[in-house]
Specification:
The complex is a heterodimer of chains A (114) and B (111). Chain A is built from no helices and 11 strands. Chain A is mainly beta and 114 residues long. In chain A, the strands form 2 sheets. In chain A, strands 2, 4, 5, 6, 9, 10 and 11 form a 7-stranded mixed β-sheet that branches. In chain B, 0% of the residues lie in helices and 54% in strands. In chain B, strand 9 and strand 10 form a beta hairpin. The radius of gyration of chain B is 13 Å and the shape is globular. The N and C termini of chain B lie far apart (41 Å). In chain B, 38% of the residues are buried. The chains are: A mainly beta (114), B mainly beta (111). Chains A and B meet through strand 5, strand 6 and strand 10 of A and strand 5, strand 9 and strand 10 of B.
Chain lengths: 114, 111
C-alpha cells in the first residue's frame, strides 16, 4: 500500500509569493494534519482536517490556510511568504481525528524562501 | 501554554552502550507517542502509551509512561548504528485535536 505522498519534494520561492503544497493520505485514512519543521526542531502543528472540516489549528498566522477534498487529499496554502517560512512541511494522515491517533508522515516538501 | 520538553538535546554513545531520553509535559497527557526521524527522513511512529505507569517493549527499546501521565522515557539497550536519528515524544494539546511534538533528542552512535 502506498504511504502518504507529498508534492512537490522541493520548492524555491521568493518573499511575497504564495505557495500550494499537496498531500495524499494513506488509503482509508480520513484525517490529514500539516506540520512545519524548522531545521533542528520538532514538527510544529499547523492544521488538522477531518471529513473536509478544520478540526484543529496551531499558532500560525492567517497567511497559512488549508483545505481537504472529498477524496481526503489536502492542500496547504501559504501567502505572502517570509524568509522565516523556509522549512520542511510535513503532511501526516491518520485513520480518524483526535490526539490518540498515530500520525503517518510523508517525506515532506522542503520550501526555501529567497 | 502546554509544553513538552525533552532531554538531553544530543547524545553521543559508543555502539553497545545504552541510551535514554526523557520527555516532560507541563500538563497531564491523555496519551503520549514516540517517533523516530532518521537524518533526511520523516518522523516514523514507534509506539503509543495510554495508561498511567504503562511500560511497553519493542526488542531493545523500552518505553515508560509516568504515574502522573506527565512524563515518559525511551530507553535503548545496547545501541546499534541503526538507532541513529532524532527521537521525539508527542502528545495532544488541550482540545485533543492538536498535536505537540517535543524538541527531540538527537542520538549519534559511534561504531
Amino acid at each position: 500500500d502506498a504511504g502518504v505522498t507529498q508534492s512537490p519534494t522541493h520548492l524555491i520561492k521568493t518573499r511575497g509569493q504564495h505557495v500550494t503544497l499537496r498531500c495524499s493520505p494513506i488509503s482509508g485514512h480520513k484525517s490529514v494534519s500539516w506540520y512545519q519543521q524548522v531545521l533542528g526542531q520538532g514538527p510544529q502543528f499547523i492544521f488538522q482536517y477531518y471529513e473536509k472540516e478544520e478540526r484543529g489549528r496551531g499558532n500560525f498566522p492567517d497567511r497559512f490556510s488549508a483545505r481537504q477534498f472529498p477524496n481526503y487529499s489536502s492542500e496547504l496554502n501559504v501567502n505572502a511568504l517570509l524568509l522565516g517560512d523556509s522549512a520542511l512541511y510535513l503532511c501526516a494522515s491518520s485513520l480518524r481525528v483526535g490526539g490518540n491517533q498515530p500520525q503517518h508522515f510523508g517525506d515532506g516538501t522542503r520550501l526555501s524562501i529567497l | 501554554g502546554q509544553q513538552v520538553m525533552q532531554i538531553p538535546q544530543y547524545q553521543h554513545v559508543q555502539e553497545g552502550e545504552d541510551f535514554t531520553t526523557y520527555c516532560n509535559s507541563s500538563t497531564t497527557l491523555s496519551n503520549i507517542q514516540w517517533y523516530k526521524q532518521r537524518p533526511g527522513g520523516h518522523p516514523v511512529f514507534l509506539i503509543q502509551l495510554v495508561k498511567s505507569g504503562e511500560v511497553k517493549k519493542q526488542k531493545r527499546l523500552t518505553f515508560q509512561f509516568g504515574e502522573a501521565k506527565k512524563n515518559s522515557s525511551l530507553h535503548i539497550t545496547a545501541t546499534q548504528t541503526t538507532d541513529v536519528g532524532t527521537y521525539f515524544c508527542a502528545g495532544p494539546l488541550y482540545n485533543f485535536n492538536k498535536f505537540y511534538f517535543g524538541s527531540g533528542t538527537k542520538l549519534n552512535v559511534k561504531p
